[in-house]
Design a protein that fits this description.
Distance between the termini: 32 Å
CATH class of the largest domain: Mainly Alpha
CATH topology of the largest domain: Growth Hormone, Chain: A
Membrane topology: Multi-pass membrane protein
Number of helices: 21
Radius of gyration: 22 Å
Main location: membrane
Keywords: Antibiotic resistance, Cell membrane, Membrane, Transmembrane, Transmembrane helix, Transport
Shape: globular
Structural class: mainly alpha
Organism: Streptomyces coffeae
Pfam family, one: MFS_1
């Protein structure tokens, strides 16, 4: 294995797998719901726990890589990812699947945190630029291919295959890494901020759990209140810890810079607004419109396709635009796309109604994502470049996790309101019917209706689901528009120089939509 590009193959393969597992699950959710008799909340956690673990542990994994070795941690991440994928594929119930997805997120955090440092340590000069170009391209391809690949595996094999396919791929990645990737470490004296990591993880987990439980059990529920209070206390502890340690996970002085603070908020809100509602759109396509998994996967690809076209064709053009303007403009397009979906969705709509909004939002994703990390680096001091990059990726993943939780709560609540107000389902069964509709069991609601009321039940399913989907698209659109206007108002900066002074010091930008 003498080719200098084998390390790139090992690193990009791992990156492809961890990113595709964010979106590959979407088109398998209805089959999971039927196969495991999973509730709507369980489906939320299947999606959310992976992104939550990835977000909570990403900065900690970066510190561990500097301390113990990046190659070593990457191999450990691949191993954990493979074993947890096996557990996901063999899961007998939703609880086991959720737990395995959490462990899968731990492995993904180790892999994601080591990608960039390993490439930086392996390549230099022009080869480094080529390596990061290939790495970024495969990242975008993972997001685009996820829903379609998930649909193909679910339709022609089984939903469990979306996890089991990781086993041979991780084996190949481990073998190439052992043979070709050299070890590297950070500066001497690196430490892991364990108290900060624990406080941040507790805050993110408690907040997400509280948001989901509040939608399910009510905001006055004891468990909901305790979770949200625990999140607030953990946040206070995190701030206190980060102020007192010599090597914090996140230097809070960075947040005193208005541009940096706004960019962290933009990273979180962009991810929350652009992608989580697609999870519920996927459920609508399969459980309500009865599209096959493959067709449902193809129906949501216009966003990824538009993003890839802009990223590929507009790369040089974006270099001439200030990062803040590109990011702000991209967020406005993402908001416009979500609002377009909200405006066009009706109970009798078909899948094609989503295409204009998805293309518009995809143009915004392609405009905003490639400059997000570079804008954060521009807003931070050079000596904090690594921390800034880790922070923006952490806020992105956290935004996705919180978006799933918040939008899912709003969606389920809206469905329940429509079912309660309609009167087709007896009051004592309305809660169960709303839960079934939200969780991808719309066919069970229709089948349970008396023969003379099945048309009415079918109409109720369409109306309630679209009403919930319309509401979360509206929230996503407003959120993205607000974030875009905030970025344009606060973030300043000039276009990157056309010819960096040293190729070896050029910091790569992240181009991954999810």
């Amino acid at each position: 294995m003498r080719s200098p590009w084998w390390p790139l193959a090992a690193i990009t393969l791992g990156n492809f797998m961890l990113l595709i597992d964010v979106t590959i699950v979407n088109t398998a959710l209805p089959e999971m719901a039927h196969g495991l008799d999973a509730s709507f909340t369980s489906l939320q956690w299947v999606m959310d726990i992976y992104a939550l673990a990835l977000a909570a542990l990403l900065m900690t994994a970066g510190s561990a890589a500097d301390l113990f070795g990046r190659r070593r941690l990457y191999l450990a991440g691949l191993t954990v990812f493979a074993l947890s994928s096996l557990a996901c594929g063999l899961a007998p119930d939703a609880g086991v699947l959720i737990a395995a997805r959490a462990v899968q997120g731990v492995g993904a955090a180790a892999m994601f945190a080591t990608n960039t440092p390993l490439l930086m340590a392996t390549y230099s000069g022009r080869a480094r630029g080529i390596a990061f170009g290939v790495w970024g391209g495969t990242s975008g391809a993972a997001v685009a291919a996820g829903p379609v690949l998930g649909g193909v595996l679910t339709e022609y094999a089984d939903w469990r295959a979306i996890f089991l396919v990781n086993l041979p791929l991780t084996a190949v990645a481990v073998w190439i890494t052992l043979r070709t990737v050299g070890e590297s470490r950070g500066a001497p004296g690196a430490r892991i901020d364990w108290p900060g990591a624990a406080a941040f993880t507790l805050c993110a987990g408690s907040l997400t759990y509280g948001l989901m439980r509040g939608g399910e059990e009510g905001w006055a529920d004891t468990g909901t209140v305790v979770s949200l209070v625990a999140a607030a206390v953990a946040l206070i502890v995190f701030i206190a810890v980060e102020r007192g340690v010599r090597q914090p996970l996140l230097d809070l002085r960075l947040l005193r810079r208005p541009s940096f603070a706004v960019l962290m908020a933009a990273a979180l809100l962009l991810q929350a607004a652009a992608f989580p509602y697609l999870t519920y759109a996927g459920l609508w396509l399969q459980s309500v419109l009865e599209l096959s998994p493959v067709r449902a996967g193809l129906a949501v690809t216009p966003m990824a396709g538009a993003a890839l076209v802009v990223g590929a064709a507009g790369g040089r053009l974006l270099e001439k635009v200030a990062p803040g303007r590109a990011l702000g403009g991209g967020l406005l397009l993402i908001g416009a796309g979500a609002l377009l979906n909200a405006a066009l969705l009706e109970p009798g709509s078909g899948w094609e109604v989503l295409v204009p909004g998805m293309i518009t939002a995809g143009l915004g994703v392609g405009l905003a994502m490639p400059v997000l990390v570079s804008a954060a680096l521009d807003a931070a001091p050079p000596e904090r470049a690594g921390m800034a990059s880790g922070a923006v990726n952490t806020f992105r993943q956290l935004g996705y996790a919180l978006g799933i939780a918040v939008l899912g709560t709003v969606f389920a609540s809206r469905v329940r309101e429509v079912v309660d107000a309609d009167g087709t389902v007896p009051p004592r069964s309305a809660g169960q019917a709303a839960e079934a509709i939200s969780g991808g069991h719309a066919d069970a609601v229709i089948a349970a209706a008396p023969p003379g009321q099945r048309d009415a039940a079918r109409t109720l399913v369409h109306e309630s689901f679209v009403t919930g989907l319309d509401r979360i698209c509206l929230i996503s659109g407003i959120t993205a528009l607000a974030a875009g206007l905030l970025v344009l108002a606060v973030v300043r900066g000039r276009p990157a120089p056309a010819h960096p002074t040293s190729p070896d010091t050029k910091t790569p930008t992240e181009t991954v939509p999810a």
